[in-house]
Amino acid sequence: MGTVIDNAAPSTRTAPAELSAALRKLYFLRFAFAAVWAGLLFTTADTLGPLSGTLLVVYPLFDAACAVVDLRSARTSDGAATRLSVNIGLSVLAGVALAVAAASGVPAVLRVWGVWAVTAGVVQLAVGVVRRRMGGQWPMIASGGISTVAGASFFLQADKDDATLTNLAGYAFLGCVFFLASALRLRSADRKS
């Protein structure tokens, strides 16, 4: 990875405690969203209908919106700005691609989701590594690594005759657990400082 140079003026930077508090709130929100989303997709995962199709498009778009909030909270103070910007672009593209793929069936959706999970996982891992000193980032680093592996498996599952969306619900549920763990670790790190 290249070095990210932070040229922001000191007055526009976010203090570590402020960033930690903002991330903690964002991670709790992401936990709640992913838990509800996973439950809804699990109940509709047998077929690719209007509800499951909408859920598939909404998930990466919500991810992009969260990255925008994260980017604004960080104000480039932690070196994650470039990586977050890449995440925003990838997630918006994934949302559009999933809307198109949903018309082609479950295998197309799994391929698009798989590619997005791999790329988003790499970015999440990179952001977690940049932020590791602030605490609470090891779950994000692990989540990024797991997302990368899971994405490859979704891509491979697309070629199977019994391909379903059920594993995507499990992917989101595991992600929500990691967001909760990170939020709790950030709270613990804040109390110690």
Report on this structure.
By secondary structure, the chain is mainly α. The protein has one domain (15-192). Helix content is 77%, strand content 0%. It has six helices and no strands. Helix 1 (16-44) packs antiparallel against helix 2, helix 3 packs antiparallel against helix 4 (106-130) and helix 5 packs antiparallel against helix 6 (166-192). The longest helix has 29 residues, at 16-44.
Shape: elongated
Helix and strand string, N-terminal first? HHHHHH
Counting DSSP H or I runs of 4 or more residues, the number of helices is 6
Largest sheet: none
Task: Provide the fold topology.
Layout: H1 16-44, H2 50-74, H3 81-102, H4 106-130, H5 138-157, H6 166-192
What are the main properties of this structure?
193 residues, mainly alpha, 6 helices, elongated
Please give a quick description of this structure.
It contains 6 helices and no strands. It is mainly α and 193 residues long. It has one domain (15-192).
